[in-house]
Amino acid sequence: MTAGPPALAPDLADGLRRLKLAAMRQLAPDEIARYVASNEWQSKAGGYGIQDQDPFVTRIAGCHTNIVGLPMELVTEFLTEAGIQPSR
Question: What is this structure's pTM?
Answer without folding.
Answer: 0.55
